[in-house]
Amino acid sequence: MSHVSDLVYQMATPQVESPAIGGCDANCWAWFADLYDHPQWGLAATIPNFTEVGGTVGRLCRVTNTCERETLEVRWDALSRLAAIRRTVCPTAEHHAWTAVINSGLDAHDLLDDIEYDGTETVTSAFSAIIAAHSDVDAEKFMAQAAEA
Predict the structure, then answer these.
(1) Model's pTM, two decimal places?
(2) Which of 37, 40, 58, 112 has its CA 20 to 30 A from that of 26?
C-alpha cells in the first residue's frame, strides 16, 4: 500500500483525524466547499469530468450552514440521487468523487438533525478519488494542500 493510501486508511479507521474536523460548522462546510471547488486541489480541478459538479457541490456546501432547512434537504437529496445514479456508470476516480457527494449529503442531514458528524466518509471518498486519478506523488501533493487549508 502506498503512503497516500495508508493516510486514507488511517483516516477511515480514526488513527488520523480528518481535515474537516475542528472548529465550528461554518468552518467545516467552508472546507468541504473547497474540497469540491478549490482551483488547485479541489475535486473540480483534480478529477476528470467533475469540474461542473465540483463547482455546484462547492456552492451548496457554502450555504449549508446558513440556508433554510427545507431548501437544503431538497437540494442535498437531489444531488445525492444524481450521485447514486452517476457513480454506477463512470471511471473509478469519478465514482469515488460521486460517493463523496453522497457522503456530504449525509453530513448535511446530520447537521440539520443536530447529529454529530465529522466528515470522515466525505474526506476519505474525495481523497480516494484523487488517488485513483493521479500518481502517488501528485495525489499526496493535492491531499497535503487540502489538509493544510
Answers:
(1) 0.91
(2) 40
